[in-house]
């Protein structure tokens, strides 16, 4: 019962985003957050290295909590009876993948991250979760999606077989993950443009340099099946975390760099809509999630703002329009 009450509180809309916006914009001490700032290019390798160091410092995985709320926010992941393939982009220690694996027996989750150490924690998290029967339904691979294309073996089964036939190097096949195809035999998928039913981007895009975001989203739509969904959740404009950044950590418009070198961008609904519609997605849901989180130890209320979105790859998207 306590868990249900906590979930109910978590999902409630505790305050008006418009009222928070007005309060912030009237506060002279917060005015620097509103002013445009020239964005400076961020070397992709440096950002990826910063996240690798971050995951190394938090190797215990205790920094992240299992995101059980996702199944309530994105019920599509478990509502359908048919088998599905999910790609978790920027999976960290597996806090998104694990609740999906718990809830749906006929799911296969691919999970990528730029940090090998984070992926090792994700594998350990799944292994120690009393879900031994689903180990073969969870596969990780190291991938910096901000600069590299997703591998071809994420495409449909026919395309995967074509790639396999063209490769004569067994080591290359194993490195690329094509050896995992035998685990997908129960899906019985027919040939299509893309091979993934759902892409999840949970607090991932905000960590990518702003100028690289369109590339990342275009890559995501390229591996989705026609009609497939991208499920999005990330930091929203005027979130408490944004307002805590000092002026010297502002490196662009709504973009900040932490002391450890990692980035954080804060999205408005319009900025999210522009990015995803520009890549060819259709908007299904897009809204602010406004939650008051209470720090009981310090007796403080924190106004958290996240952006919740669901975007669909058009069913009629043709081969001629594919980024591949």
UniProtKB/TrEMBL annotation:
Statement: the UniProt record of this protein carries the keyword Magnesium: no
Gene3D superfamilies the record matches: Vaccinia Virus protein VP39
EC numbers: 2.1.1.-
Enzyme class: transferase
SUPFAM superfamilies, A to Z: S-adenosyl-L-methionine-dependent methyltransferases
Annotated Pfam families: Methyltransf_23 (PF13489)
Keywords, ordered alphabetically: Methyltransferase, Transferase
Keyword Cell membrane: no
Biological-process GO terms, alphabetical: methylation
GO molecular function, one term: RNA methyltransferase activity
Record's function text: S-adenosyl-L-methionine-dependent methyltransferase.
Family according to the record: Belongs to the methyltransferase superfamily. METL family.
The protein's name in its UniProt record: tRNA N(3)-methylcytidine methyltransferase
Protein source organism: Apostasia shenzhenica
